[in-house]
Amino acid sequence: MAYIIETTMTTLPSKSTTTFRAIGFCGVDDSVDPGELIDFAAQYPQAEFGVLFRPDLEGTPRYASRNWVEQLVKLVLNQQQQRGNDMKLAAHLCGSRVNQVLDATPQGLEFLRQLEHWGFRRIQINATAVNGVDTSRLAESATSLIQTVANFPNLEFILQKNDETRPLWEALLQKNNASMPKNVSMLVDESKGTGLLAKTWPSPPADYEIGYAGGIGSSNVQTVIQDIQSVAPGRSVWIDMESSLRTVNDDGTDIFDLDKCRKVMQIIIDMGVSLL
What we know:
There is one protein chain. Helix content is 34%, strand content 20%. It is α/β, with parallel strands linked by helices. Strand 7, helix 7 and strand 8 form a beta-alpha-beta unit. The longest helix has 18 residues, at 66-83. The radius of gyration is 18 Å and the shape is globular.
């Protein structure tokens, strides 16, 4: 059952306030009822659910099956038609999906069109070896990626920013006059998706937006938020988490735990954080 948070007055954030435009919960999969995600999003509209797409692992923990994704999308579209609510969905690409998009193959471009049709608005490109990606030609992929993001202006493309992906994002900056295309941002995650907490968080560059990830969860989100607020005054950012949201049941099943997401959101709300 959804409980809608109602407010009677909106206070605009000051120019020095850090605004969080999304609280990302990645790894939704077949272990969670899509209807429960709809209810959660109605209660916490700032939540963004991330679906990991990696063909060789589809249907395993953290990697939703296509049938499950289609069920979720159908419910999201019904929700939009009936209530006008727009649930935040992000596609986190791994494995062959990354190389297809970076190389602008027909399969990659068709998949982006499918994601856009399904209602995904942010596409994260996890171009690291641990995510099953061939990283041998990242720099060479920059030219085709610039053309691809230009062809999908309604999608926001997110690049992981770490040492391993440096050839890709540095080449992108060089080819775009030291800036990023308007619909490209970066996710700072030196753990490369392995869930290790960062020791420090960098300030956002002047020319593009960034988000923060790596070991974030309910046990430390308050401190992480405060640290980010100190380095990103006046900026719009987001945070993303994955590993901390898993629970292994007594029977050994690995599930996406919506209660852990709820705990994170409540901590953030209780802090009075500026949310979009």
